[in-house]
Amino acid sequence: MTEKTKDTAHPQTLMDALGIELTELTAERVTAIMPVQPATHQPLGYLHGGASVALAETVASVGTWNLIDQSSQICFGLEINANHIRPKREGIVTAVGTPLHRGRTTMVWEIKITDEAGKLVCASRCTVAVVPKPEA
């Protein structure tokens, strides 16, 4: 994993292990990149579908976290689906998430993961639950 793709703000998390780096965070859009490398491969040397799903859920969860009252709420992935469109062996994939629904207790995100040429690798939709922050 190179320092360029390593998100040092989240050490010892799945983001760190997979090399996921957030590159944009607004109320309307979340973007992250992930290297396609042995840590994100399945046994045959292609991008693992689970790595794509982890990237998609990361984008949706961070996007939701950005929109909630962080002093009194937390969020968790509730449901996710993914269509794996095209295989990839190496390089970088980019996930772009946009909110489809911003509710009080759930948010729904559409996430498109593309390769360097802009070709669709994975299309995903993720529902994120918004819950009260537990007492310390």
From TrEMBL:
Ribosomal protein found in the keyword field: no
Domain Thioesterase: 45-122
Keyword Hydrolase part of the UniProt annotation: yes
Stored SUPFAM superfamilies: Thioesterase/thiol ester dehydrase-isomerase
Keywords: Hydrolase
Pfam hit, one: 4HBT
InterPro entries on file: HotDog_dom_sf, PAAI_dom, Thioestr_dom
PANTHER family found in the cross-reference section: 1,4-DIHYDROXY-2-NAPHTHOYL-COA THIOESTERASE 1
Official protein name in the record: Hotdog fold thioesterase
Lineage per the UniProt record: Bacteria, Bacillati, Bacillota, Bacilli, Bacillales
